[in-house]
Amino acid sequence: MWAVRAIVTPPHCAAFLFTLAVPTADMDLQLRFFATFREAVGQKTLEHEFEDGATVGDVLLTLESEYDGLEGQLLDDQGELQPNLNILKNGREVLHMEGPETVMEDGDKLSIFPPVAGGA
Q: Are 110 and 29 in contact (CB under 8 A)?
């Protein structure tokens, strides 16, 4: 993705205006929600843009702020993952990586599973 930036020289210089195409620092992620989280978001899969270098924690914090049904469900007060939550980056559990500090990259898939209980 590219953005156009206008650059103007200071007033004491000759009037000069030009544009420069520079790449933006954004990445697209595919977010997948399951069970009650799918209900809170209203869909199974969501494409979302984040700043380059965003972490799993950044993504989850953004989701909590954008969807009332997710508020307080993903991260605790210290920014750690809520207990029994399963978050997979490209099919791999982030707890076995860097946890909420796991860095996301353009095109990554993040799957978010709520705690599951049950059995007979």
A: yes
